[in-house]
Amino acid sequence: MIRTMIWDCDGTLVDSRAMIDLFYDGYHRLYPNRPRKDRAEFVPCHGNPDEVNFRMLNILPQHQASFFEFCLNGSSVTDHFRAFPEINPVLFQLKARGIRLGINTSRTQKTIREAQLQLKEAYDLFDFVVTSDQVSHPKPAPDSLLLCQQKAGCRKEEMLYIGDQPVDQQCAEQAGIQFVLAQWGISTPQPFHECLKLDHPAAIFELIKNH
């Protein structure tokens, strides 16, 4: 029986695909003299921990603290990102059924605060949130999901982790927790291993009925 559902944030709860274009534009504003990169090179940035993106894009240490502000170019994250339309009603129904809810995200404790504005009142439904800077080794390492399990106080077989990126699947597999692919948020051409898949958030109810 499923007692706890852990959700990735970007691409699963929140439609943050605009991040790809923000990174693309911000990178080229920051480094106008570097050879231009193709937009496809920025697709994996969606959902990666910050340090992975900095390394992949070769963002110099002196620019890392201000890189996101540079990408936003005076706008706010909430100007670009919104909760997926079905997400909030689904979260309320799950909570009403007694399912514990958690977030396991590559965001930091600072940037996860923006999710409160993006998810609005549904954010308060989550029993716990684990961010990348709360563990020594963020996704795809299993540390964050194992911390989620500790906070949930349940067995691994009583948990699901819903995400949209290969790093989410790798994290779940290494932690020994069932992974469910949120196909509504996929933005990466990278392949996934065989797994459970959902076309839309409300499909989660049919899935848990069979567990």
TrEMBL record:
GO MF term (any one) = phosphoglycolate phosphatase activity
> What Pfam families would the database entry show?
HAD_2
Q: Does the keyword Iron-sulfur apply?
A: no
Q: Name one GO cellular component term.
A: cytosol
| Matches recorded under InterPro entries | HAD-like_hydrolase_sf, HAD-like_sf, HAD-SF_hydro_IA, HAD_2, HAD_sf, PGP-like_dom2
GO biological process terms, semicolon-separated: DNA repair
UniProt keyword annotations, A-Z:
Hydrolase
Identify this protein by name: HAD-IA family hydrolase
